[in-house]
């Protein structure tokens, strides 16, 4: 065997620099891709001024909790069912109800279901793909008390 065949390839400074630069290019590229994805899929601001909203938070929460409402959602047979029950487990018909249905991670699937009260729950015809869904609901009790809640549920596929 010749001497050059025994030596093999040498790791030079340029090779080390290339490995180093390549590794950091991959790391920085992945970070940029994740940051862009996070910014473009963020649904936005929850409130315009968090300080002002915080001033009445405790009063609004206490009023809402005094209603004793429990809210649950499920999807069955092409129907989205939103159940609101009082402290005794009886169905509640709210004075007003608005809701936004969507995915927890982006707003492209957001829509406003047309709920109707059937005597037991609020029902809307909705075709939903499997996965996690949120209902961001706002209701008003018959006595005028505001009620807001995010209801999380899963559609099995």
Question: Any overview of this molecule?
Answer:
The chain is α+β, with helices and mostly antiparallel strands and 157 residues long. Helices cover 32% and strands 30% of the residues. The strands form two sheets. Strands 1-2-5-4 form a four-stranded antiparallel β-sheet, with no helix packed on it. It has a three-stranded antiparallel β-sheet with strand order 3-6-7. The radius of gyration is 27 Å and the shape is elongated. The mean pLDDT is 90.
- Secondary structure: number of strands: 7
Can you tell me the overall shape? Answer: elongated
Order of helices and strands: HHHHEEEEEEE
Average pLDDT, rounded to a whole number, is 90
Sequence stretches where pLDDT stays below 50 over 5 or more residues: none
Order of the strands making up the biggest sheet: 1-2-5-4
Q: Main sheet?
A: 4 strands, antiparallel
What's the tally of helices?
4
- Percent helix: 25-40%
Our estimate of the beta-strand percent is: 25-35%
User: Which structural class do the helices and strands define?
Assistant: alpha+beta
Radius of gyration: 27 Å
Beginning-to-end CA distance, first to last residue: 65 Å
């Amino acid at each position: 065997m010749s001497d050059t065949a025994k030596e093999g390839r040498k790791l030079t400074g340029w090779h080390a620099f290339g490995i180093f630069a390549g590794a950091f290019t991959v790391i920085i590229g992945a970070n940029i891709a994740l940051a862009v994805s996070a910014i473009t899929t963020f649904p936005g601001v929850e409130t315009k001024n968090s300080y002002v909203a915080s001033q009445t938070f405790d009063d609004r929460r206490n009023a809402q909790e005094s209603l004793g409402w429990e809210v649950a959602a499920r999807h069955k047979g092409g129907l989205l069912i939103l159940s609101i029950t009082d402290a005794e487990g009886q169905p509640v018909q709210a004075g007003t109800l608005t809701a936004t249905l969507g995915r927890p991670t982006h707003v492209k699937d957001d829509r406003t279901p047309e709920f109707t009260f059937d005597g037991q729950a609020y029902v809307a015809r909705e075709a939903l793909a499997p996965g996690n869904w949120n209902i961001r609901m706002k209701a008003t009790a018959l006595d005028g008390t505001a009620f807001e809640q995010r209801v999380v549920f899963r559609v099995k596929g």
